[in-house]
Write a structure and sequence with these properties.
homodimer, about 350 residues, alpha/beta, 4-stranded parallel sheet, 12 strands, DNA-binding
Chain lengths: ~350, ~350
DNA sequence: CTGTTAGCGCGTTCAG
DNA sequence: CTGAACGCGCTAACAG
């Protein structure tokens, strides 16, 4: 049709009124007669007028958008977080500007900078694995831009944050194993320099104490990265004389590896050995036997984080030195065959 | 630290130069001495100056951001598309504004409107299932904003688009079954009012002709929505006298249901019946037997779409009435046990 | 209830 | 090489 952007001015000229009148009419200002409001809106429609958000934002110093930085978007967990975030921000009228750090610190810093340049109203971030320095986040705080960390957070900073309750849920998981009669519980954990795994490990250790079980260093594996490693480790464990009767894994992939190896070694699950995973991946209900796991709630984590952020954005002026929250989202134990000894098998 | 935004003007005052000089120095304008450039940059850094993108955008009518609308972000497929998109747009200096339609037409229209208001440089969209009317997209075209459809496209519009090659890949899948000696091939398809399934169905039908196999209406199931339905249907099929010897499913979930039922009925896969899925979900390599499937390349779909969009953005003025492309991204057959009759079993 | 005026922060003429 | 002045589109005082 046409190239020329039609502005508020064009509408004003068309109707022989001032631009302010048009502006006010379009935003439903109270001091405008209903007649002119209607007239203006009709004209705007007719002329095919599109408001220019940018100009408005410049004027009132607020672009209604929120920046989100995360390590990688293409994981079930993260994409569900975004889903949860969007559920809150969309109805509130905010756009989401999404950036990936790709687990790289420099990218993360760049992302922060780019979001600040774009005048976002607030920032939500899940830290990259590389991130140890938090100066870039401090910049955000110094500029008084609301900030919320989610999932991958940092202890170096006093900010709002929302995380999965790794610690308590692991205690619950180990307690469940204990309740099923397992007394020699091993752990295959992801690298504990990552908070998530650190907390699960701590939960494991404390749960042992709670259940008055003895800790055996030979059954504690830190830094297990994938299925292959899990398989190798399992093989080794069960070639020793003193073997565990349950294995808690900090991820379902790891648990799958364990399960496969046990099957291959003809060790019965859950009778001889119990196996428990974490994250409740889709495949966990079709493994042989089906896999008990811990289901996280990424959507809730996202929603909570978004709610907190919106709150700080709204109350930016009111409370100056408010207290920062740390919210723990409670996951759920999903008990399936791989740890069910005392009851009849499910399904 | 401070509340006050520090602007180009502050830097200018600080150095006793004009704002234009600062502006030019910061953008590396050629007619500025290196000395002053350096001086200005130093000062900017020192004063902790952050450029205001919004003001700049208003000035030159371009906000470097791209709008993305999709039905739901929390699927493996879609989040991988975004990953692919980001891979292209990030280095090019564009922000991504992401919106979800939640498979709802009104939301989609609203999203378009909101993105237009935000003055995005271009829009990428994957249509909601509800969308039959495309007036909102026509608006985008009329305003001369570059537009690319991906995955869920429409035939009503002459625009650039990028899709998975459902048709040809299905032909390849059926041909593979044929090559394994399967001659009575059934299909369990998702609802064919959705393009994706329509094309897979058409591929199936044409493949039968190509292989000179007879079409049997009793073996064609349209609108299979989930695993449960797949299980029921499978049960029914194999209670009849005339049974197929292979089942092609337009999704892995469906295939899983089929597999489970066949196992339960003690019908041997792949010996008696072959089963093939589509989309290569993570669980497909741990089913019993492992499931042959078709692996799509969502990241490539995203990247391709993004590249085309950037191209149109750059060349906006040059070529006025350019031809619109439709790119088919070729998926890959993943052959596993469930369809491997003639060769030794894999793994 | 409406019009006039004055910027928001930046880039870009036009003059030196 | 640099400065003065204007305007992008919109909103918010300040008048009437």
């Amino acid at each position: 049709m046409k190239d020329e952007k039609i502005t508020i001015k064009d509408v004003a000229n068309y109707l022989n009124v001032s631009t302010s009148t048009v502006s006010r009419a379009l935003t439903d200002h109270h001091s405008i007669s209903k007649k002119t409001k209607l007239k203006v809106k009709k004209a705007a429609e007719k002329l095919n007028y599109t408001p220019n958000n940018i100009a408005a934002s410049l004027r009132n110093g607020k672009l209604n958008s929120i920046g989100v930085i995360l390590p990688k978007i293409n994981s079930t967990f993260m994409s569900n977080c975004i889903f949860g975030i969007e559920k809150i921000t969309q109805p509130a009228g905010y756009n989401l500007i999404i950036c990936q750090s790709n687990e790289n610190y420099e990218n993360e810093v760049r992302n922060i900078k780019s979001l600040l340049d774009s005048q976002v109203s607030g920032i939500m971030i899940s830290l990259s694995n590389e991130t140890t320095n938090t100066d870039h986040l401090q910049t955000v705080i110094d500029k008084d831009i609301p900030l919320v960390l989610f999932d991958r957070t940092s202890d170096l900073l006093d900010v709002d944050s929302v995380v999965n309750d790794d610690y308590k849920s692991t205690i619950a998981a180990i307690s469940h194993l204990y309740s099923q009669g397992y007394k020699k519980i091993a752990i295959l954990s992801g690298p504990t320099h990552i908070y998530v795994y650190k907390n699960r490990m701590q939960g494991y250790l404390d749960a042992l104490k709670l259940c008055k079980l003895k800790k055996n260093e030979d059954w504690i594996f830190d830094g297990v990265k994938n299925k292959l490693e899990a398989q190798a480790i399992t093989q080794n464990i069960f070639n020793e004389s003193n073997t565990p009767d349950a294995i808690f894994c900090t991820g379902d992939n790891i648990a799958l590896g364990v399960l496969q190896t046990l099957n291959k070694m003809n060790i019965e699950v859950p009778k001889t050995v119990g196996v428990m995973g974490y994250s409740n991946d889709t495949f966990s209900e079709i493994t042989q036997p089906t896999l008990s796991s811990v289901e996280q709630h990424p959507q809730d984590i996202g929603s909570n984080a978004a709610s907190i952020l919106l709150e700080s954005i709204e109350n930016k002026k009111k409370a100056d030195k408010k207290l920062h929250k740390k919210i723990y989202v409670k996951p759920k134990l999903i008990i399936r065959e791989s740890t069910t000894r005392t009851q009849t098998y499910l399904e």
